[in-house]
Amino acid sequence: MGVTKRKRIPVDGAGLPTALQSTPDGVVVVDGDGIVQESNPAFVAAMGSGDPTGIALGTLVTRPGDDGTVDDALRAAAVAPWCGELRAADGVWEATLAPMTDGRLVGVFRDVRARHQAEEARLEFLSMVTHDIKGPLTVILGYTELLSDPDEPPSPAMLTDTLGRIRESGEQIHALVSNFVELSRIEAGQHLLDRRPVDLGELLSRLVLHHAPRARRKGVELSLDETPMPEVTGDRPQLERVVVNLLGNAIKYTPRGGRITVRTQRVNGHVAIAVEDTGPGIASEDIGEIFEKYRRAPAARRVDGVGLGLFIARTIAHAHGGDVQVESAPGHGSTFTLVLPAD
Question: 77-86, long-range: CB within 8 Å, 24+ apart, which pairs?
Answer without folding.
Answer: 77/105, 77/107, 78/32, 78/103, 78/105, 85/112, 86/61, 86/62
